[in-house]
Amino acid sequence: MAADLWQRGCEKLAAELPEQQFNTWIRPLPAADVINDDDGGSAVVTLRVPNRFKLDWIRNQYAGRIETVLSELAGKPVRLDITLAPREAASGGPGPRPVAAPQHIAQALTGGPAPTANAAHGAAAARPAAAASPSPRGRLNPLLTFDTLVPGRANQMARTAALHVAGAPGQMYNPLFIYGGVGLGKTHLIHAVGNALLADKPDARILYLHAEQFITDVVRNYQRKTFDELKAKYHNLDLLLIDDVQFFAGKERTQEEFFNAFEALLAKKAHIIMTSDTYPKGLVDIDERLTSRFDAGLTVAIEPPELEMRVAILMRKAEQEGSPMPEDVAFFVAKNVRANVRELEGALRKILAYSRFSQKEINIGLAREALKDLLSIQNRQIGVENIQKTVADFYKIKVADMYSKKRPASIARPRQIAMYPAKEMTQKSLPEIGELFGGRDHTTVLHAVRKIAGERQKNSELNQQLHVLEQTLKG
Ligand SMILES: Nc1ncnc2c1ncn2[C@@H]1O[C@H](COP(=O)(O)OP(=O)(O)OP(=O)(O)O)[C@@H](O)[C@H]1O
């Protein structure tokens, strides 16, 4: 019975799940091992998946469902154990394709060490666009992967969509349009898709490029009249990753060529992922024929990371640098450096350098010293009183209502909204904030902060208002 449990489970899942999901995620998996425990009262089913992002995806999306189906069929509790398939095993016989570590691929092909994560942008932009077909590496930076991208509310939608595309390119969400402010991880995310696909399908034709490189290529090929080269390069890809498409503004010839490439790729079910600093309809001087196509698949935003995510990013990056950062220091830095991840990385670098040169351990005192200049600018600006005044002005209520006991929604709502930046943008603790809001309990503040943070994700009008407030407060 154990031998065909997985087989029967698959049949049931095939009937339950949408066909495309089943074909993409479950069908390609090799048969699972089933081990019954000693007294036969339960079983463990071990599923081996070819790579990390499939592992995460299956664990998050399907593990519960699979366990239930298998338990029902087996008539006893079944626990699902999902592990990575060993490389040797994956490379032989039927089942998933061999998995090559992106780092290895990159190093083997370039003959040198992989570039650093921070070099991604510059290196790509500086390199002239090759006229021939893209290298198998597709100019991907092997360090920018899903593994090194810290997940959080701010990038949840974009990351989920990107994972989906990496697992099943050319199917849903085509084109995928990712927009957001500077330094929020858009470039990182599209490289991650390329690297994941490359790990899964080493032969996939993938190309990453910055929009400016495309412009340069178009100009060069027009000058030389080598239009076939342009076509050969851009129309024969499986995945095109193109960064900062707002740079196409006012470049008519480029837009024309991009339109051609776009249509050719979509017709072949190749996937296109674009990034931009704004949503498609917000792009200026780009032909509507293009912007409407940009919007025809899925458009997702990446928001600035919230406090907890900033803390997680700092701690992860410090760990990667071999200098773990204590949590209280990470909170201190995250509260003071809020704009984007690139700034967080800058602050981290300063602290690590300061600690190394002074040979002192990393603590809040050292971080304060290392970030002295930055802090002095910010401390001048944001205090809870300032926030209360700004929010009260914005919603046209009296500042006194911020600490009053009044409860009508027209007052209680702005008060809750004000508690959110009070927590996110100042150094004050929850009890201190509660005190400043008319002696309220810290749980009231916590409730408000969570509520507004959650609503912000779903309610674009509120999100917009908060952006305006934050910009006003930052001066
Ligand atoms: N969630 C994250 N986890 C880990 N690192 C991140 C995350 N988001 C961004 N980064 C890092 O922050 C830096 C800036 O990110 P990236 O270059 O991808 O931003 P961007 O949105 O493309 O910005 P720009 O619009 O300026 O091109 C990179 O070093 C990237 O690896």
UniProtKB/TrEMBL annotation:
Cellular localisation: Cytoplasm
Pfam families, alphabetized: Bac_DnaA, Bac_DnaA_C, DnaA_N
Region annotation (Domain IV, binds dsDNA) ranges: 356-475
Every Chromosomal replication initiator DnaA C-terminal domain range: 383-452
GO molecular function: ATP binding; DNA replication origin binding; lipid binding
Recorded family membership: Belongs to the DnaA family.
Name of the protein in its database record: Chromosomal replication initiator protein DnaA
Taxonomic source organism: Piscinibacter aquaticus
Phylogenetic lineage: Bacteria, Pseudomonadati, Pseudomonadota, Betaproteobacteria, Burkholderiales
Gene that produces this protein: dnaA
